[in-house]
Amino acid sequence: MISTASLYAQQARLHTTNHHAWLMYFGNHKFSERFGLHAEVQWRRHDLFAESQQLLLRTGLDYYLKNGARLTVGYAFVETYPYGDFAVANAFPEHRIWQQLATTQTLGKVRLAHRYRIEQRMIGNSATGEFENGRFEHRFRYMAKASVNLTGGEHPVFAAVYDEIFINAGKDVAYNIFDQNRAYAALGYTFSPTWKLEVGYLYQLVQLRSLDTTAGTRNRIEDNHTFQVGVYSTIGFVK
């Protein structure tokens, strides 16, 4: 039996489905025993590779703790383009300052990674496409990732899964305190101790900041199915 609460929840949300493709590079490169550089590029496309969705450029300064954990502080630039049924009026820029703690642990054959990130987001105005008269928000993110080698040898194939939740905060946040959730599964290949490749599928549930008012008042939800290719590098300038 469907409850009244369930029916209301369904009526209070307007869903759309998108299909994306994200090509990504992640690098963490030590230049001393304790310090390193984080470098990241993400080229995100809508309708698989047909249209622009987003460009993300992120960098940061890594500090390596004695227990293997890593602290990072950095900057990111993001350009978001109109796409899909809930398209914004214009492409708009975003500047982010971010802080992060990353930890790892091993349980048997499974390698676990935890990532705790805080972002201060200075978001441009999508109505004009300019940075002026934008918004300032905080966002809190937590990701848990597990990976396990499926083969042995110098170049093992591995499987990886993760889930990440995003929560917004700040006076400019109205209808999307819950921002999004990402669930991911992939297969990977180890080229060397410093280079890895992952090819996988990401399901992204996004709650947009504006409401739909065409038939009552409803939250607008994106169900995004994304093909991902990620290259990971840990080349260091010191041993």
Automatic annotation (TrEMBL):
Instruction: Name the source's superkingdom.
Output: Bacteria
Q: Name one Pfam family in it.
A: DUF2490
Q: Which InterPro entries match?
A: DUF2490 (IPR019619)
Tell me the protein's name: DUF2490 domain-containing protein
Give the species.
Chryseosolibacter histidini
